[in-house]
Design a protein that fits this description.
alpha+beta; 4 helices
Length: 118
């Protein structure tokens, strides 16, 4: 499975997923993106800043891997969205979705797809 295929499979896990993209360690989108005709909540310049900040956060969290173990994913439940990040292979899979009551199984379904890449 290649990177674009991974993003496409993630987007099909749940109809509320808005974005599935792979970010490199420099904060650049290298695969995937917005799903279908969904409109982004921010402009393109803000996307770039978000991706760079995400890459930096992932690098900073890795400082604690020795003590706590590797991060499998992070999830933020925001007012408008749920956002998740999945670090692997010096990249980060970034996923956003519309809020819903039950979302706890979705990150584990995404982890299973990532595990298939190894």
């Amino acid at each position: 499975m290649d990177e674009n295929e991974l993003c496409a499979k993630v987007s099909k896990i749940d109809p509320k997923i808005r974005f599935s993209g792979l970010i490199n360690n420099k904060g650049r989108l290298i695969a995937g993106g917005m799903i279908g005709s969904v409109k982004s909540l921010e402009d393109e310049k803000e996307d770039e800043m978000l991706f760079m900040e995400l890459a930096l956060r992932v690098k900073m969290r890795q400082e604690f891997d020795k003590d706590f173990g590797r991060v499998n994913f992070t999830l933020s439940h925001r007012e408008k969205l749920i956002v998740m990040s999945f670090p692997f292979d010096k990249k980060v899979l970034f996923v956003s979705m519309d809020k819903r009551k039950e979302f706890d199984k979705i990150p584990f379904k995404i982890l299973k797809l990532i595990e298939k890449l190894d």
